[in-house]
Design brief:
Helix content is about 55%, strand content about 5%. By secondary structure, it is of the alpha+beta class. The chain has two domains: about 1-30; about 35-510, Cytochrome P450 (Cytochrome p450), CATH 1.10.630.10. A four-stranded mixed β-sheet has the order 1-2-7-4, sandwiched between helices. A three-stranded antiparallel β-sheet has the order 3-9-8. The chain has a two-stranded antiparallel sheet with strand order 5-6. Keywords: Heme, Iron, Metal-binding.
Length: about 525
């Protein structure tokens, strides 16, 4: 009898205690938390759940954009997270400020999977990040790009050759899902540069995705789930335990395929000016998880090449797809680009990295594409360091999650005139110098699609060179139009997780009579 009474009392006590604790936590987050004075919806300030649910739906980028439109440049999007849509935040969060501690990357988003060495993306300390960046930077110097250009050119030429074959097989024109062809190309390029194998993926040759690539696409969505459950440590452990063994095994198989390619390239006794040729001199021969000084261990080499392969293909493919989508819907801009490319280069062999880098309108098109279709639409997550610090003049306690929300900043009507329109002219010199230009006051320095400071994308210059070359060769070889009965796409309606889930769209291609 007493035992039943004791059990009932315990259950009643717990039933009262848990809601009380929850109500206290909600009240604290809304009214007493150090961030409670910052604007944002109360439900998001009270719980992390609205943020997580929005991300799981692929809508977080758009929901946060709506919040910025309502509340302004600074929005509290979770109990311990502030989103910024202000250019000053780039300097405060991502760049070195004299007298300030660096803002480390947020381990919830950037933390490495158990058992793997750290990569340049997941490096948990500034020292390790700088060491890896210094070593991997050898792949992206001006000299390295000149040596790697023939590899890139060969795959882009293969792309245009394949598209010509499509047209010839169909008569005078062909309709293709251009997103697939962009992804085929970027994966083949990075596979060749990383693994020393022109047919590592063979996407262009087979006009189809390699199974490894398809697996990578599926992991982006899964990665978003993994990242958000890390906000709840105990829940994260439970979910990992409940995760089907097949899922984890598939992910590990995918990783091991890449490492086997790395080992194959390391064993090649050939002089080939790809990524590995620049990294092997820094290989220390060990299998430790952390290399020393200016050296890199085997485990680090494996994971960094895996990361570079994914990042170097998916990001370029996103910008190529978004830029082309906007060009097709802006015939005036497409016409100007075609004229610049075709009048500047009478023959296709003249399209080189160096020459293309000097074309004002092509570069303006790329910049506008990066603004409206950045590889990462959300924030590159960092954390306020020990002791707290200020961002945009606002003091934030240590441990606060912070980042620049790119989609909101780049599409802000207070930062850009005609913010939602594709207008390459805003990037031309005339817009900088002519005070009568409607784009004179645009916040061009706010756009950092490759991030900025020591955290910026190490492959930025190679990425830009690829973007210029692929777009230039495409418009040099083909007339492009939106087909009357093909699949179209509104770029801003696609789901976004860590990266955008590209849906694809059709382009009607007609070959130029002089194209070769």
């Amino acid at each position: 009898m007493m035992e039943n009474f004791s059990l009932a009392t315990t259950l009643i006590t717990l039933g009262l205690l848990l809601p009380t604790c929850l109500l206290y936590r909600v009240a604290f987050n809304i009214f007493l938390h150090p961030l409670s004075n910052l604007p944002g919806p109360r439900i998001w300030a009270a719980f992390r759940f609205p943020y997580c649910i929005s991300l799981w739906k692929g809508k977080l980028v758009y929901d946060v954009f709506a919040l910025h439109q309502k509340y302004g440049d600074v929005v509290r999007v979770a109990p311990n997270e502030i989103s910024f849509a202000n250019a000053q935040a780039w300097d405060d969060i991502y760049r070195h400020r004299k007298g300030h501690k660096p803002f480390p990357k947020n381990p919830i988003w950037w933390g490495e999977l158990p058992g793997r060495a750290e990569s340049i993306v997941s490096a948990s300390t500034i020292v390790n990040h700088e060491r890896l960046r210094k070593i991997l930077g050898n792949c992206f110097t001006d000299r390295a790009l000149a040596e790697e250009e023939p590899i890139v050119q060969s795959h882009v030429i293969q792309l245009t050759d394949k598209l010509h074959e499509k047209i010839e097989a169909n008569g005078t024109m062909a309709t293709v899902n251009i997103v697939d062809w962009f992804m085929f190309t970027t994966f083949d390029i990075i596979g060749d540069l990383s693994f020393g194998d022109p047919k590592a993926f063979g996407c262009l040759e087979n006009s189809a995705y390699h199974p490894w690539v398809l697996d990578i696409f599926s992991y982006f969505k899964l990665g978003a789930l993994f990242s958000t459950v890390r906000f709840y440590n105990h829940l994260a452990r439970l979910i990992m335990q409940l995760m089907p063994t097949s899922v984890m095994k598939s992910q590990e198989t995918n990783y091991q395929w890449a490492t086997s390619k790395v080992h194959s390239r390391m064993s090649l006794e050939v002089q080939r000016r790809d990524f590995m040729s620049k990294i092997l001199p820094h290989f220390d021969g060990s299998d430790e998880k952390n290399g020393k000084l200016d050296k890199m261990s085997l485990a680090e080499l494996e994971n960094n090449f895996y990361v570079m392969t994914v990042a170097g293909s998916e990001t370029c493919g996103t910008v190529l797809s978004g830029t082309t989508n906007y060009l097709l819907k802006t015939p005036r801009a497409l016409g100007k680009l075609v004229e610049e490319i075709r009048t500047t280069f009478p023959e296709s062999h003249m399209l080189t990295f160096e020459r293309l880098s000097k074309l004002p309108y092509l570069n303006a098109v790329i910049e506008e594409g990066l603004r409206l279709s950045p590889p990462v639409g959300g924030a590159l997550a960092h954390v306020v360091p020990e002791g707290g610090d200020t961002v945009c003049g606002i003091w934030l306690p240590a441990g606060t999650n912070v980042g620049v929300h790119q989609w909101s900043l780049y599409r802000s009507s207070s930062k850009f005139h005609d913010a939602n329109l594709f207008v390459p002219e805003r990037w031309l010199e005339s817009a900088y110098n002519d005070k009568s230009s409607p784009y004179y006051s645009d916040h061009r320095t706010a756009v950092h699609a490759f991030s900025t400071g020591s955290w910026s994308c190490i492959g930025k210059q190679l990425g830009l060179a690829e973007l210029r070359l692929i777009i230039a060769r495409l418009v040099w070889n083909f007339d492009m139009n939106i087909p009357s009965d093909g699949k179209t796409l509104d770029w801003g309606t696609q789901k976004q997780y860590v990266l955008i889930e590209k849906q694809g769209f059709d382009v009607q291609l007609t070959a130029r009579p002089v194209a070769t």
